[in-house]
Specification:
The protein is of the alpha/beta class and 498 residues long. The chain has four domains: 32 residues; 134 residues, Periplasmic binding protein-like II (D-Maltodextrin-Binding Protein, domain 2, 3-Layer(aba) Sandwich), CATH 3.40.190.10; 94 residues, Periplasmic binding protein-like II (D-Maltodextrin-Binding Protein, domain 2); 207 residues, MetI-like fold (Orthogonal Bundle). The protein is 59% helix and 13% strand. The chain is built from 19 helices and 13 strands. The chain has a five-stranded mixed beta sheet with strand order 5-1-6-13-7. A five-stranded mixed beta sheet has the order 10-9-11-8-12, sandwiched between helices. The chain has a three-stranded antiparallel beta sheet with strand order 2-3-4. Helix 6 links the parallel strand 9 and strand 10. Helix 14 packs across helix 15, helix 16 packs antiparallel against helix 17 and helix 17 packs antiparallel against helix 19. The two termini are 44 Å apart. About 3% of the residues have low confidence. Bound molecules: arginine (ARG). GO terms for molecular function: transmembrane transporter activity. InterPro entries: AA_ABC_transptr_permease_3TM, ArtM/GltK/GlnP/TcyL/YhdX-like, MetI-like, MetI-like_sf, Solute-binding_3/MltF_N. Its main location: membrane. Belongs to the binding-protein-dependent transport system permease family. HisMQ subfamily.
Length: 498
């Protein structure tokens, strides 16, 4: 009999996994099915907005700027996007994410187009439709100033390491051509620059315009030609495969951009003043001081606290229910709870989050913040459930028997006799769980939720300073978690008094 239930549990886990997969696959097919007449443009016009996805770590294409304490995405790509949206008669909405998430977001309908200094490579063109090229740039290697004269182009690096952004064309180019070098990839360009400065690698490959912007703003680095054979395609706007109506409209706007030379004559000069920050060294220093970014950190703490408080609440609630289910004599309830707990504990939170945001996104569109809260709560529930279960099991059966024989109902026994004692036992373990929840909630930044980590990344990018924002972020997390554990201790002492 016991064996049979074990099997049932395993089956349930498998079913939970399968139940989710076919639906998403079907949904993907059905969105692509009616290809004959494409109504992408019509839909955009109905919404009244065109959603552009971008990874703002790539000046002058796109970067984040501190404008009176508010973060603003700027860059020539934003200007291009604005022009395309304006010509369609709609508003431009910008969604920021890591470069390697952009195409996934496009495919799953989170965004309508990608403008992110993206090169229209033939490989990408297999899964998206590109507009015509709006800008063409070469490829440069950024190196440390102290190495000037030592390296001339990619061939000088031999067995040394070169960095490139994850999912970028640069990473592919290097893999194909710089065969002797080690290629290291990171999600954000500013991390690459930091890696270069701290000797993790000896060069970083980026588009020429970006190399110039970084070299101008970061002490101790400079740029050299890459010497690589680069694809003939330039930067273009990516749309969902089959969104011909959007491509057509964008191409018309780009025709005008090219004809009037808007990129070089208007867009680049417009954003250029933000890249060459301030005029004197002192001005640059002031605009890059951490104090100038306090509002970013405050906003980040706000989001982190918000997500944590809600997730602790729902995680605890669901966890308590799961614990009772797992302890119950009802075999079905027991199996469902066990399967849930095992499945959630057995898969990474990161994957669960991406699955809720992108995977389920094919069926229903859940906004990033909500996706984050759901993922963190569901995840925490599994751990809380086990903590609570251990607490309940730690109370001897004698307690239940005594209280039942005194005439208390099952529920009353649980509520007034078992739970209060169990809570006391599990309090430190719960505290542990909540502290990890706060820290782990930082994962939501990968889908663009503006929590503390997300903000610190923005400050890093915007100030071209790598370490200070991290130190501040660390201190802020510590204050939050230490505050929580102190609060837990107060209650612990109270409980011990009762
Ligand atoms: N042009 C390169 C590519 O298509 C890099 C673009 C990186 N863009 C960015 N916003 N980080 O892969």
């Amino acid at each position: 009999m016991k064996k049979a239930w074990k099997w049932l549990e395993a089956l349930l886990v498998a079913m939970m996994m399968l139940a989710l997969v076919p639906q998403t696959v079907n949904a993907a097919e059905s969105t692509q099915a009616p290809k004959v007449t494409d109504n992408y443009l019509k839909k955009v016009k109905e919404k009244g907005e065109l959603v552009m996805g971008t990874s703002p770590d790539f000046p002058p294409y796109e970067f984040v700027q501190n404008v009176n304490g508010k973060s603003k995405v700027m860059g020539m790509d934003v200007e291009v996007g604005r022009k395309i949206a304006r010509d369609m008669g709609v508003k431009l909405v910008i969604k920021t994410m890591d470069f390697d998430s952009l195409l996934v977001a496009l495919e799953t309908g989170k965004i309508d187009m990608v403008i992110s200094g993206m090169t229209a490579t033939p490989k990408r063109a297999q899964s998206v439709d590109f507009s015509q090229t709006y800008y063409k740039s070469g490829q440069n290697l950024i190196i440390r100033k102290s190495d000037k004269g030592k390296f001339h182009d990619y061939r000088s690096f031999g067995g040394k390491a070169i960095g490139a952004q994850t999912g970028s064309m640069q990473a592919t180019l290097l893999k194909e051509q710089a065969k002797k070098s080690k290629i290291k990839t990171m999600d954000k360009t500013n991390d690459l620059i930091l890696g270069l400065k701290t000797n993790k690698f000896d060069a970083v490959l980026v588009d020429t315009a970006s190399a110039a912007a970084f070299a101008k703003n970061t002490d101790g680095i400079t740029s050299i030609p890459s010497g690589l054979k680069i694809p003939s395609q330039g930067n273009a706007v990516a749309f969902h495969k089959g969104a011909k109506s959007l491509v057509k409209s964008a191409n018309k706007s780009i025709d005008e951009i090219k004809e009037k030379k808007l990129v070089t004559k208007v867009y680049l000069p417009n954003v250029g003043k933000y890249i060459a920050k301030g005029k004197t060294k002192k001005e640059v220093k002031a605009s890059n001081s951490m104090w100038a970014y306090k509002d970013f950190f405050i906003a980040g703490v706000g989001y982190t606290l918000f997500i944590s408080v809600i997730s602790v609440f729902f995680g605890f609630l669901l966890g308590a229910i799961l614990a009772l289910m797992r302890l119950s004599h009802n075999k079905i309830a027991h199996s469902i709870a066990t399967a849930y707990i095992e499945f959630i504990r057995g898969t990474p939170l990161m994957v669960q989050l991406l699955f809720i945001y992108f995977g389920l996104g094919l069926v229903i569109n859940i906004p990033a913040l909500l996706s984050g809260i759901i993922a963190v709560s569901l995840n925490s529930a599994a751990y809380v459930a086990e903590v609570i279960r251990s607490g309940i099991s730690s109370i001897s059966v004698g307690q239940t028997e005594a209280s039942r024989s005194l005439g208390l109902s099952k529920t009353a026994t649980m509520r007034y006799v078992i739970m209060p004692q169990a809570m006391k036992n599990i309090w430190p373990a719960l505290g542990n769980e909540f502290v990890s929840l706060i820290k782990e909630s930082s994962i939501v930044s990968v889908i663009g939720v503006k929590d503390l980590i997300y903000q610190s990344r923005i400050v890093q990018a915007d100030t071209y300073r790598g370490v200070m924002p991290l130190v501040i972020t660390m201190i802020l997390y510590f204050i939050i978690t230490f505050g929580l554990s102190s609060l837990m201790k107060v209650f612990e002492r109270k409980m011990n008094h009762d």
